[in-house]
Amino acid sequence: MTYAIAQAAERSGLSIDTLRYYERIGLVEPPARDSGGRRSYTDDDLAWLEFLTKLRTTGMPIRMMREYAQLRGPGAEARRMQILTDHRTDVLARIGELQSSLEALNYKIGHYCTSVQLQEATA
């Protein structure tokens, strides 16, 4: 199945401008063009965009995403795996930091809940 750029944007959750930007900087291969010269995205293109979105969501810098994208194809699997492994290490560290911050928030919320309940009980 193929999709016009507006459909690809809707399905991927990315804007049309972002799709064009990703193409311009080499994150995505230029999509095929239909008979009218309009971009025509495939399901494989959308799967790649979904993966790129996950990389961005996890905080991978665009420059690393570009390196990873440029290594697509056979022969570069070891470097691609290293990029993902290094990034996973960073993501796990951030998850640990977020978990610690969440625990602090929960502690404070619990403290305020106790204070509010005491104030209501004495009112």
From TrEMBL:
A Pfam family recorded for this sequence: MerR_1
Keyword annotations of the record: DNA-binding
SMART domains registered for this protein in UniProt: HTH_MERR
HTH merR-type domain: residues covered: 2-71
UniProt key word DNA-binding: yes
PROSITE patterns: HTH_MERR_1, HTH_MERR_2
Superkingdom of origin organism: Bacteria
Keyword GTP-binding: no
Name of this protein: MerR family transcriptional regulator
